[in-house]
């Protein structure tokens, strides 16, 4: 079973700053199967990035994903007020079929 | 509008049963794998189960195997989760989600993600 570990647990930043979120896998993951989601309080998750680096429909270009193998990164170039939320990485595998990281909370400093 | 709407959550005693439903609209339901994902209070996301387009393949997280059953009715555009022998640790918001594959003409590869989610239904297991 592949375990995804996200860091940091909480990121305290101000609007306009750059956010860098890490997702590390316990084994190599195909970038085809690595996705990122945003979740705001009381809301369902929203797909941001699929295939490690492709933005989903309607996602602003301040969101970008990168990485390969065991290390993946979600970058928010300039934080907008609506970007303060929890972010999850996810991978598609064999067993279990889908695995999520534990999440990184981006909070207002 | 592409939409998923869950229902069927509620309060149930340990050992009890509950059946969740997810109504799909705005897309060809029968063309997609579908998943259930849950989130315990104050915790992260946990994938629970998924089912192939025609229902011929089903997969579960180990913690629910033998207790939960995922099913679908493509004629009714509906996804279901039958939950038996419920435990306190099954308490969560349960989301249904559409699994999509995205084709890149540039890389000639498919990529995967859950691109449509319902609003969730809350299941509380308590005496």
Description:
The complex is a heterodimer of chains A (109) and B (127). Chain A is an all-beta fold. Chain A contains no helices and ten strands. Chain A has strands at residues 4-7, 10-13, 19-29, 34-39, 46-50, 54-55, 63-76, 86-92, 98-100, 104-108. In chain A, strands 2, 4, 5, 6, 8, 9 and 10 form a seven-stranded mixed β-sheet that branches. In chain A, strands 1-3-7 form a three-stranded antiparallel β-sheet, with no helix packed on it. Chain B is mostly beta strands and 127 residues long. In chain B, strands 2, 4, 5, 6, 9, 10 and 11 form a seven-stranded mixed β-sheet that branches. Chain B starts with a strand and ends with a strand. The interface between A and B is medium-sized, with 28 and 25 residues.
Q: End-to-end span of chain A in angstroms?
A: 36 Å
Mean pLDDT of chain B: 96
Order of helices and strands of chain B: EEEEEEEEEEE
What integer value in Å does the Rg of chain A equal?
A: 13 Å
Brief summary:
The complex is a heterodimer of chains A (109) and B (127). Chain A contains no helices and 10 strands.
Q: What brief labels describe this structure?
A:
heterodimer, A: 109 residues, mainly beta, seven-stranded mixed β-sheet, three-stranded antiparallel β-sheet, 10 strands, 0% helix, 56% strand, B: 127 residues, four-stranded antiparallel β-sheet
SSE map:
The complex is a heterodimer of chains A (109) and B (127).
Chain A: E1 4-7, E2 10-13, E3 19-29, E4 34-39, E5 46-50, E6 54-55, E7 63-76, E8 86-92, E9 98-100, E10 104-108
Chain B: E1 3-7, E2 10-12, E3 18-25, E4 34-39, E5 45-51, E6 58-60, E7 68-73, E8 78-83, E9 92-104, E10 109-117, E11 121-125
Parallel strand pairs in B: 2-11
Antiparallel strand pairs in B: 1-3, 3-8, 4-5, 4-9, 5-6, 7-8, 9-10, 9-11
């Amino acid at each position: 079973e592949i375990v995804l570990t996200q860091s940091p647990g909480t990121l305290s930043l101000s609007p306009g700053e750059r956010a860098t979120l890490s997702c590390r896998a316990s084994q190599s993951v195909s970038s085809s199967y690595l996705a990122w989601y945003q979740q705001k309080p009381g809301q369902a998750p929203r797909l941001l990035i699929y295939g490690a680096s492709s933005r989903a429909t309607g996602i602003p270009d301040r969101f970008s994903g990168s990485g390969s193998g065991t290390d993946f990164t979600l970058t928010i170039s300039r934080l907008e007020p609506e970007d303060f939320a929890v972010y999850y990485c996810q991978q598609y595998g064999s067993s279990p079929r889908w695995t999520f990281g534990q999440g990184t909370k981006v909070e207002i400093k | 509008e592409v939409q998923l709407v869950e229902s069927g959550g509620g309060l149930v005693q340990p050992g009890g049963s509950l059946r969740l439903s997810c109504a799909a609209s705005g897309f060809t339901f029968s063309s997609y794998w579908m998943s259930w994902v849950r989130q315990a209070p104050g915790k992260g996301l946990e994938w629970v189960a998924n089912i192939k387009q025609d229902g011929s393949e089903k997969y579960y997280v180990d913690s629910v195997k033998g207790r939960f059953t995922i099913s679908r009715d493509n004629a009714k555009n509906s996804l279901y989760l039958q939950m038996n022998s419920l435990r306190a640790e099954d308490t969560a918001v349960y989301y249904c989600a559409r699994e999509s594959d995205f084709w890149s003409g540039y890389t000639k590869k498919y990529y995967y993600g859950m691109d449509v989610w319902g609003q969730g239904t809350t299941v509380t297991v308590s005496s």
